[in-house]
Write a structure and sequence with these properties.
Keywords: Oxidoreductase. This is Short-chain dehydrogenase. This protein has a single domain, classed as 3-Layer(aba) Sandwich (Rossmann fold). The chain has six helices and seven strands. A seven-stranded parallel sheet has the order 3-2-1-4-5-6-7, with helices on both faces. Helix 1 packs across helix 6, helix 3 packs parallel to helix 4 and helix 4 runs parallel beside helix 5.
Length: about 230
């Protein structure tokens, strides 16, 4: 039986790169996204390129009920979960004083609650087997406030706090927790920018870093990964 990785928000950007890397290493994949057409294309690509299974489900991970249904589908596979990557999330720019009402709620739901409820839905499998690794895709915005970051930065600060709490709770169960804090990465969220690609990290570098972290011995965990463009933040 192949090992299994679960990646939320896996059709684009960092999530897609993580799936590609782990599938290349022989992992079966479970993922989700909002658009069915993107999921169908991902499944076809992964299963035609790598000798693994790819299971994909339509889900808006900012909705707790849809998170619950996604977790139930993962559990129906009755396959040990080796890696969980809480990657689903999005960015709404703005300032706290002037951003539209409801922005904070949307950011918390999409960037924090998605990881919280997915973890709650799946972590008991890891605890029971005393193995597994959870990666939470945080951000430079988790440790550094910046102009126009607004509620996005608040949600990412909270996600890092969630990661720290989870690490303390799970270490006695031999389940690893790593917070990943990427700087500017060339993903669809930067479409339309006039900045050259050289100012961004490729998503593949984040995926390689995560796989290397996962590959360490059972006696070692990297708790936080801070990874920036060579020329600095944008």
């Amino acid at each position: 039986m192949n090992k299994l990785i679960v990646v939320t928000g896996g059709t684009k950007g960092i999530g897609r790169a993580i799936i590609e890397k782990f599938a290349r290493e022989g992992f079966d994949v479970v993922t989700c996204a909002r658009k069915e057409v993107d999921l169908r294309q991902l499944v076809a690509h992964v299963e035609n390129t790598y000798d693994v299974r790819c299971h994909a489900h339509v889900a808006d991970m900012s909705e707790p009920e849809q998170v619950k249904l996604f977790c139930e589908k993962v559990l129906l596979l009755r396959q040990p979960i080796n890696v969980l990557v809480n990657n689903a999330g999005f960015f709404i720019p703005g300032e706290i004083a002037t951003e539209p009402a409801g922005t904070l709620e949307k950011m918390i739901e999409g960037n924090l609650y998605s990881a919280y409820y997915t973890t709650r839905g799946l972590v008991h499998v890891m605890k029971d087997l005393r193995q597994g690794h959870i990666f939470n895709i945080c951000s430079i915005a988790s440790i550094q406030a910046y102009a126009n970051g607004g509620s996005y930065a608040i949600s990412k600060f909270a996600l890092l706090g969630f990661s720290k709490c989870l690490r303390e709770e799970l270490k006695q169960h031999q389940v690893k927790v790593t917070a990943v804090l990427p700087g500017a990465t060339r993903t669809a969220s930067w479409d339309g920018t006039t900045l050259p690609d050289e100012r961004f990290m490729p998503s593949e570098d984040i995926a390689e870093t995560i796989y290397s972290t996962y590959s360490l011995s059972d006696r070692t965990v990297i708790e936080e990964i801070l990874i920036r463009p060579q020329l600095g933040d944008i």
